[in-house]
Amino acid sequence: MWGCGDNFPVLFPHPARPSWRSCRRCRSQRRSHCCQDRRLRRPRLLETTHSVETPYGSVTFTVYGTPKPKRPAILTYHDVGLNYKSCFQPLFQFGDMQEIIQNFVRVHVDAPGMEEGAPVFPLGYQYPSLDQLADMIPCVLQYLNFSTIIGVGVGAGAYILSRYALNHPDTVEGLVLINIDPNAKGWMDWAAHKLTGLTSSIPEMILGHLFSQEELSGNSELIQKYRNIITHAPNLDNIELYWNSYNNRRDLNFERGGDITLKCPVMLVVGDQAPHEDAVVECNSKLDPTQTSFLKVSNLLQGKLTEAFKYFLQGMGYMASSCMTRLSRSRTASLTSAASIDGNRSRSRTLSQSSESGTLSSGPPGHTMEVSC
Ligand code: BEZ
Fold first, then answer.
1. What does UniProt give as the signal peptide span (predicted)?
2. Which class would CATH give 47-316?
């Protein structure tokens, strides 16, 4: 069997015939469409976008990779002002992340009206509440015939995935919740929100949700990039609807030891100057400490997040320690340099020792710890 890439069998040039035979592998008659054409030969990522109808309207999602037997799908949900690409591309396309994600099929859900090229909803359109957005997820999984997930959510997306996990605990194997605020807005928050609304535009309010005041006043290239994306988004009206649903969220009512709690391993992540730091700390105090890891990072450096994600999956028994790069092993020291939130250094040291000896996967699924990187 030959592929036409290595040795294009050049027949006698004849104006009525192609100057090469069709490829036996992909059967293409045209060299430029052949699987062996050098331009197409770099590893191709299988990426397909789908939409399904749900009781609350249609939802679009993009699938990367192919389903792996006996493995959950990684399902992501993005924050307000973003879509799956602007939220997760920096993380999922980060070099070190490849060795993790290649072992999983990924499903990236776009909140309705946030997908690229989404038309603006008509005036008066009733945008789904966050609880309803969570109730759309079963339709996605049913369509794909996936039974379990590891959820990765940011901000509003973290809330949605938590709500989904509360309603469907048997289908969620783990959750990575970045900058989650599980509480409904109190009247003080509403008053502050209303006041801010008098002086700030919707994009500025959303930027205040995504970034700390320090980051915003620093006006780095990253901030300028996101300010530009949100301010000039053709679907800004849709973004405002998602923003309103986020601000009208109910309390998730987590209670440690109570009935309303997350039953799966959870990794809570927050930036140490993030607007949601207190909310995430409080959330950590309400979840089962044997199932929850709390990761506080000085900023959401992808390297640190990737590494923590890898440990998290290892703790669930999904990443063999042999998958850990030497780089990430050597970085372990920096992951353990800070005391835990309750001053218990030994617990975070346990993670270090276990990880370095490659035995984290046999330990308990989670640790409550604070890690400053
Ligand atoms: C992925 O490989 O899952 C991915 C690629 C690009 C953007 C977001 C996710």
1. none
2. alpha beta
